[in-house]
Amino acid sequence: MTEQKQLRLGAFMRPVSLHTGAWRYPGAYPDANFNFKHIKSFAQKLEAAKFDAFFMADHLAVLNMPVEALKRSHTVTSFEPFTLLSALAAVTEKIGLVATASTTFDQPYHIARRFASLDHISEGRAGWNIVTTSNPDAALNFGLDEHVEHDERYHRAREFYDVVTGLWDSFADDAFIRDVESGIFFDPEKMHVLAHKGESLSVRGPLNIARTPQGWPVIVQAGQSEPGRQLAAETAEVVFAAPRDLEGAKSLYADIKGRMQAIGRNRDHLKILPAAFVIVGDTVEDARAKRAKLDSLVHYDSALASLSISLGHDASGFDPDGPLPEIPETNASKSSREQVIRLAEKENLTVRQLAQRLGGYGGLAFVGTPQTIADEMEQWLFEEGSDGFNVVFPFLPQGLDDVTDRLVPELQRRGLFRRDYEGTTLRDHLGLPRPENRFFAQVAQAAQ
Amino acid sequence: MTEQKQLRLGAFMRPVSLHTGAWRYPGAYPDANFNFKHIKSFAQKLEAAKFDAFFMADHLAVLNMPVEALKRSHTVTSFEPFTLLSALAAVTEKIGLVATASTTFDQPYHIARRFASLDHISEGRAGWNIVTTSNPDAALNFGLDEHVEHDERYHRAREFYDVVTGLWDSFADDAFIRDVESGIFFDPEKMHVLAHKGESLSVRGPLNIARTPQGWPVIVQAGQSEPGRQLAAETAEVVFAAPRDLEGAKSLYADIKGRMQAIGRNRDHLKILPAAFVIVGDTVEDARAKRAKLDSLVHYDSALASLSISLGHDASGFDPDGPLPEIPETNASKSSREQVIRLAEKENLTVRQLAQRLGGYGGLAFVGTPQTIADEMEQWLFEEGSDGFNVVFPFLPQGLDDVTDRLVPELQRRGLFRRDYEGTTLRDHLGLPRPENRFFAQVAQAAQ
Prior knowledge:
The structure is a homodimer. The first copy, chain A, is α/β, with parallel strands linked by helices. The first copy, chain A, has one domain: Luciferase-like domain (TIM Barrel, Alpha-Beta Barrel), CATH 3.20.20. The first copy, chain A, has helices spanning 36-48, 67-70, 81-90, 108-121, 136-141, 150-168, 226-235, 246-262, 284-296, 300-311, 334-347, 351-360, 370-382, 398-413, 426-430, and strands at 8-13, 53-56, 96-102, 126-131, 176-179, 184-186, 196-197, 202-203, 218-221, 238-239, 271-272, 275-280, 365-368, 388-392. The first copy, chain A, has a ten-stranded parallel sheet, with helices on both faces. The first copy, chain A, has a two-stranded antiparallel ribbon with strand order 5-6. In chain A, strands 7-8 form a two-stranded antiparallel ribbon. In chain A, helix 7 (226-235) links the parallel strand 9 (218-221) and strand 10. The radius of gyration of chain A is 23 Å and the shape is globular. The mean pLDDT of chain A is 93. Chains A and B meet through helix 3, helix 4, helix 5, strand 6 and strand 8 of A and helix 3, helix 4, strand 6 and strand 8 of B. Chains A, B: This is LLM class flavin-dependent oxidoreductase. Chains A, B: Pfam families: Bac_luciferase.
């Protein structure tokens, strides 16, 4: 008898929600971007529901958008991830804490140090979502007039990863003797000076932090683009790319796991957890009604911009309450345009509803009852569409409560999700091995 | 009747202590560098004693020292300040949280964001200890082969401060309307784009964080050197420079407050809180015995290096158990050498004891009973040697308990220190005004 496959569940968080209309939903916390008490309550509920991780999305700029959209957006400001997740580390005990940090606009010594420190503070619960930051507005906040090109960013990201992980291995696990009698605090033979000099980076080391409980914090990536998939296959331990449907997901899953095998990595050492927007209702109709209500809170001015971008065609002249008209071929990505047209047909959406859907949250979504959503998640798991999900909550706190109080028990009943944490670290939750120190032979860990 | 002057007390912390022998002291926590539970207990004790702030010292490198000293040092590794203080913010309610961050090796957008985020998380308790990082080992960890020169560092620091404080003023205090009915989240007229282009830095802004509870986190500096004093007079709100004695302190105090008046700043808007090593005993003899015991735990190999540097003369040939011999004139700072010679004479120290004193903690110290130390602190306060102190604990936790359980009650009995917090923010504790937003007229604050 083989052990049943288990879903891994992360929470992909913005304080108010990733959905742009969420702050207006009845019962929402519009001030959550800077109200730590709210975020703390979310993290503690997720921990009570045995989620693997709390995952904080991030931007390095107030995003550039037309002022009519900007003034309606709750997503332009929020807590900074290192400070927020460190604060959450002190008020939680088991849940993993994944922070987004950019390789393009920060220094590897700082990044290595902050994640290592968070891993110590949280006793082994830190994860690093490596991003290369494609937003050109961010470059202007870091002294660069032009955005750094895609290839250059990925090249630097790979080197940055090597440096950070090398710094995490600055000390052997047993370097710190702390022998009061002899006065020897640590064994200098067990300290490694990295002395990295590469194309983009020059970093001497060693890191001034002992090796952490997890050895290395867990490495997380989006992994959607071609270089992103390769980087993920080589280095990532969690991937959260969000294909639109199960077919796309299976193809991405097979591709990334295949790339891993091609370079000799164990395919179980990376978990593919797509971002999935989840709305739970008493009935499927009820869930859809919640979504329609939520989408209706996206202002049409903001929504139109999203629709026009997806179509590659100015949609401002369309009748908002009519069906999507025929549009000519454009320069926009053909697949993006066709997807939008299919969505409008399938759900019989007006131009306004279509625009609000895209302007709200346009990605992969599970909308239904605890049973129908569990059916879908089960299918994704068993058909190798994913190893679990990073759940995006439509609105908070109710949308989160619906997941932890209704969906999670259904998943537990089916044996698809844990009833209690099996271990104490994020690696334990995800079933990931503790990395060997590349400079020192591993020491037997009493607690491992 | 005038209100009695009050001491302000910060705790100048390293997890094990700044004293290099402290980890070997009976009852110490040698593992505190990476044991959050210990640090949390220290912060909570300091808060119970109504300390103004918990102040985390920092380094950006494993300090370069001879291996015989290095392997005995507990100060080469520890938590990173942003992560540590954010975690402490979640488990304390009133005490201020001051983190050290370098203007030479970080980006103003990151620094502005992390401190603003910490100020929101802590509801107004953040402070920024601005350092320019003189340690050449740090440069090698940030891609620089040569250390950045002193003048260049200070020039950049001044510009960096302007950018960070400008970013903190990106939004008016009342910019975030969050009007659910109209769907307007914030007023774009109340957002300021900094668009800074200076000699060292180019930063567009705005910061993606709302203006914080304190307006700006409190600005802290060492302020000892000539450019450091001027920078402090222009920008600092707390200075922790540690003169050796009251005469030196009065001169520094008068100098910095005079510089403030010369540029039109209110002299009460900067608190001078020298770092002071405090050892409390049942009698003065008992306190001195504790210090002698602590100093004796500094290994002679480590201690000798400190003595040789202070003398500008290789001390390794001296008889450790004899008195300090006559030494010829050297290249070392004359005042440093003379101070060391005076110290040896005054306390009748052997070469070993002298070396261990300098290798342990060589700065300003108050060693005595609660009464004698309170007498000294009172004198410093009333004679304008300082506005209070940043207390350095000789060993932890006992050295801290001695201060909170014995010295603080004596100060309270004399009316020199608060029995409870008067307000909720670090600015409240220190009696500092909330800065006006330089781009928007201040809004009346209900809570101010």
